[in-house]
UniProtKB/TrEMBL annotation:
InterPro entries named in the record: 4Fe4S_Fe-S-bd (IPR017896), 4Fe4S_Fe_S_CS (IPR017900), Helical_ferredxn (IPR009051), Sulphite_reductase_A (IPR014259)
Keyword annotations: Iron, Iron-sulfur, Metal-binding
Protein name in the entry: Anaerobic sulfite reductase subunit A
SUPFAM superfamilies assigned to the protein according to its UniProt record, in alphabetical order: alpha-helical ferredoxin
Sample GO molecular function, one term: iron-sulfur cluster binding
Taxonomic source organism: Catenibacillus scindens
Lineage: Bacteria, Bacillati, Bacillota, Clostridia, Lachnospirales
Length: 338
């Protein structure tokens, strides 16, 4: 059900949402950039549509809404535990198509990869999705190559128009009724999406785990500095570790948290007895890349990577994930000849 919506009409819809939901969208954080006197576009809670940044890609993904960077699971004393309270409201989240596809990957890992993760599930069951149309491709995006440039599984879509109005496709019955009651003009709306990126990738159809034997990974031993930024901005990375925070000296009162972890940083593969796997950065790069474009697809039928390009955007050493993917064909040829 499509509508041509004014800023005032959309603001009225926002007020309705805020009764039961917090609203999250890409917004500008002034002075929050990685360098002095720079801003940062990332997800945060908003109160009005004017706070949403439509014309730039968020530097960080939406996943910290559903999987917080540091999340308290429960509090404990010597004799009892208390589960941390769930958020009192649900969430309306504004997502671009690639991130909406990434949400499906998070669901795979947290809901269908064995028993459902309770803490993720209780948040996931109370969200609504608003698809943000992409009028053009952003830097380093390769969503078309990954087949994630179009999405249909949303509650509402929104496209910002040059005159400050919005084209909306609404699938939520209650929201549609409110827009109809406001005598919002009706029309057919198809969410905008990109059909071509400046960056393209070609994943070899004959790709196998044998590519791990290629020498292509060696260059990342020196190039990568194992900072883990690529993992932390990625909307489909899901690894975390557990930490206990003690309030008392005897360690019997405190809280347990789960905190984001990264396969690219030191300590991730440490095991009992002092052992550690994948000590070289090239080995870590190999593990990450093949997880995104090989073994995940073997299990689920589609790639884990959604082509958002954030890893390329944020790498301080200018390592290109898309460029790495495009080296796989030659790498397969190398190991085949051996």
């Amino acid at each position: 059900m499509g509508f041509h919506v004014t800023n005032m009409q959309l603001s009225a819809l926002f007020q309705t949402w805020q009764t039961n939901y917090d609203i999250y969208a890409p917004r500008n954080f002034s002075g929050g950039g990685r360098f002095s006197d720079t801003d940062c576009i990332r997800y945060g809670k908003i109160d009005c549509v004017d706070e949403i940044v439509f014309d730039k890609k968020s530097e960080y993904s939406f996943k910290e809404i559903l999987t917080p960077i540091s999340q308290t699971l429960f509090f404990f004393t010597e004799g009892e535990t208390k589960e941390a309270d769930a958020p009192k409201k649900g969430a309306v989240i504004f997502l671009r198509s690639c991130d909406l596809h990434a949400l499906k990957r998070l669901d795979d890992m947290y809901l269908h990869n064995g028993p459902a993760d309770y803490y993720y599930q209780r948040l996931r069951e109370n969200i609504k999705i608003v698809l943000m149309g992409c009028a053009h491709s952003f830097g380093n995006c390769f969503c078309v190559s990954m087949g994630t440039n179009v999405s249909t599984n949303y509650n509402m879509s929104i496209d910002c128009q040059p005159d400050g109005t919005y084209l909306v496709d609404c699938k939520d019955e209650a929201w549609a009724q409110q827009l109809e009651a406001a005598e919002t003009p009706r029309l057919e709306v198809i969410p905008s999406h990109v059909e071509e990126n400046n960056v393209t990738v070609q994943i070899p159809e004959h790709l196998t785990a044998e590519v791990a034997k290629s020498t292509m990974w060696n260059e990342y031993d020196s190039r990568c500095i194992n900072c883990g930024r690529c993992n932390f901005v990625c909307p489909t990375c899901t690894c975390f570790t557990m930490q206990d925070l003690f309030y008392s000296e005897n360690g019997k009162v405190g809280e347990r948290r789960r905190v984001w972890a990264s396969c690219m940083v030191d300590g991730f593969t440490d095991v009992a007895g002092g052992g550690s796997y994948r000590k070289k950065n090239g080995e870590r790069m190999r593990f990450k890349v093949l997880h995104k474009v090989l073994d995940y697809k073997q299990r689920n039928g589609y790639h884990m990577c959604v082509g958002c390009g954030r890893c390329d955007d944020i790498c301080p050493e200018y390592i290109s994930f898309s460029g790495c993917i495009n080296k796989l064909d030659n790498a397969m040829a190398e190991v085949t000849e051996q």
